[in-house]
Amino acid sequence: MLGRVEKKYGVVVIGGGPAGMGAALGARDYGEDRVLILDREPEAGGILLQCIHSGFGMHYFREELTGPEYAERFLQNIIDHDVDILSGSYVSGVVIDSGGSKKVRVMSESHGLITVETNAVVLAMGCRERTRGAVRIPGTRPSGIITAGLAQKFVNLKGYLPGKRISILGSGDIGLIMARRLTLEGCHVEGVFELMPYSNGLTRNVVQCLEDFDIPLHLSTTVAYIHGRDRIEKITVAPVNADLKPDMSRAWDVPCDTLLISIGLIPENELTQNLGIGLDVVTGGPLVSSTLETSMPGMFACGNVLHVHDLVDYVTREALLAGRFAGEWAKGVRRPKDNIRLVPGDNVRYCVPHTLSPEREHTIHLRCKAAMKPCKIRVGNLMEKKLRFVFPAEMIMFKIKPDLLDKFHGDTLRIDILPLEKGEKVD
Amino acid sequence: MYDVAVIGGGVIGCAIARELSRYRLSIVIVEKFEEVGFGTTKTNSGIIHAGHHSPPDTLKGKLVVRGNKLYDRLCKDLNFGFSRIGELVVARSESEIPELERLKKQGEAKGVPGLEVWDRERLRNAEPNLSNTLVAALHAPSAGVINPYELANALSENAVDNGVDLKVNCAVEKIVVKKGFFTVHTPPETIKARFVINCAGVYADKIAGMVGLRDFTIHPRKGEEYMLDKRLKGLVQRLIFPIPSKNTKGILIIPTFDGTIMVGPTAQDNADRDDASTTYEGSEQVFGFVSKICPSITERDTITEFAGLRAVSSTNDFIIGPTRIKGFINAAGIQSPGLTSAPAIALYVRDILKSEGLVLKKKGNFKPHLPGPPRFASLNYEQQKRLVEKDRLFAKVVCRCELVTEAEIHSAVDHGARTLDGIKFRSRAGMGRCQGGFCSSRCMDILSKRLDKPFEEITKRGGDSWVVRKMTDDV
What we know:
heterodimer; A: 427 residues; alpha/beta; FAD/NAD(P)-binding domain; Immunoglobulin-like; 7-stranded mixed β-sheet; 5-stranded parallel β-sheet; 8 helices; B: 475 residues; alpha+beta; Arc Repressor Mutant, subunit A; 8-stranded mixed β-sheet; 5-stranded antiparallel β-sheet; 12 helices
């Protein structure tokens, strides 16, 4: 129920975006009927609420929805299933007593400072955008340099434009979506400047948001200087050399009144870190077992706080699973510890979860370091899966069946992405 | 007609105005930006120097030690963040040790308390994260850190509480000298005053030029600073200085009052008085140097960077005093250690005014105190609970990176914030890792409501620093 908070829960979910909503439903479906979602925004739904474009739900619902529509389906489901939601709340910490019971400290205007006791916690705080400060862009510090997500909030939720003449640094999906959105609002988008030789956004977004609107995408190019005293007036952009440093001899100026920053997302794990939970330095998210449990017993993680996903549909699937395992935990089910460790090998940036157990089927999420086509994923000597291509912007997923793991006797399983050998073909 | 017009609402102008507000005088601060402290002050490193660095035969050398001592009282009165964390000048080789001894002697001669040379072992125990190649250090326990913008805000607010007029968005364009008074022309206001105090920072020579004084020039010296992620909080306990060079105290490791580590500044002579840009060279210089002193600091942890302009005068010293234009007093060339010296400069200027014929009579009703901001994040749970019982908006978090509540944003507006930067400098909202990505829009909502201004008229820091445009405008 909206705004209701009991003293004790089986599962408390921190974050009311797609991950948090999915986790709450996962716990509820398992049969845990004491579930609370704590969300910091005035309304649950997370960043989906400002994503008014379509393209959500094609995998999970098999239909194309807008962000708010996708959120609405879950929200309705949650309300129907009698999950409690406290929006406008902030979790200032979790105190874990010696018996393993967790006390979640919550701040909210409606309830003041309260403590909620729970058996299990699901971390679903999502991620934040990297800012100008995360990369060195020389120049002045005028207004008009904002993250693409903040621009999206201004346009879609507040009804204001971030400016009229827009440049975009980085080709993350939000930046690409905003290039189209602002063009539709009558702004002029000068171009998207991407440091890497490939786009960091989904191919469909490059096609539908840039190519369809004749917005240039300058690969291997970066913003080398920002000009303007009070408000940004222009940027100097330059192609980069092999060391990713700008080649100023080939630089040119682009007048603009706004620079959107879309250079990647960082899982928001400050709370996680304060609890002493182990993090993966590559994903920026917690290290998790095959039940999506962190190094802190009874604390689970899913969605973009765990690793940055490309599609919300996959967040939902992962979240349902995390919620289910949190529900189990709340009911006292303790599974044996995983005994296989996954190790990223050739051309694998990371894989999640970090460990496996032979008792169940697992979905492995991973990202490659460099684009490769065609290629194959090799999992130890257990299996190979051929792929037409892999691309850093797109998450790779595959399943490992328990019977395969039954045959495996080692304790570390290495995953590689390799070029096809002579004679091998993608089916 | 004012008795005194202070040109420039930086930390120096505000300190002078606040000091003069103890007396029965009519005073005005004339500031060109939207808020005070938006020039050199906001980019200051925030160090309250012990005073051993500057030579005793200079004016800055004389005022710095006195200024340092005045900070305890000032902080008690105005409740800005101030902490005497101490300072270490570190020697990277045996050959640098004599310089530590020289600084120690210089400091002792000036009355700097507690100076001690630490050997390698003592340094390692006190600061285990510094490079193990360092051989010795000079420890100065009286050095401290403050947030410079907080000080400027507190001084100006207290001055205003005591009757000083603050005129913002008033860039001085012309000063007319008449017998016995000055007319200071700014686009929105014309201000008459018997005395003018020139605290115009990097523009002080231009202001002096407006009354025909051309005996000094100001040469801005740019300093770039890099703010690091809170992850590194506690990496060093004290201010870490290298052995100083002729022009600068060098690149420092600064644990700011709030615990965030800041590294810098560079020292680059700049022709442009408004060019506070950062550069590739600057970041390379800062991180290249700092990593030698403290190997765990890398550029990767930067959350933001900025640059400021020191107002270096042609004499390389403070230029404070009366001029051949009767009633026109300079407080110019205030480079480092200007922040430390500020309270001493205020007293020094007061005495000059007195000897120039300004009658100083103490007010009976001077209010020296300001409560200071609530700083919710720094309180313990019980204290936080008490605040929330008084005002539920203390339980409504606006900036999650720095844990700033809505009550604190309102307090910032109550205490003079008019822009997003004004809110940031008073409450820390927007100062953390996400750099305002999540809270800017909410701070703008609150500003818009409280100032009764449309959302699109809220600026980052006044002037043309608009944030959004209305959708219905022609595009």
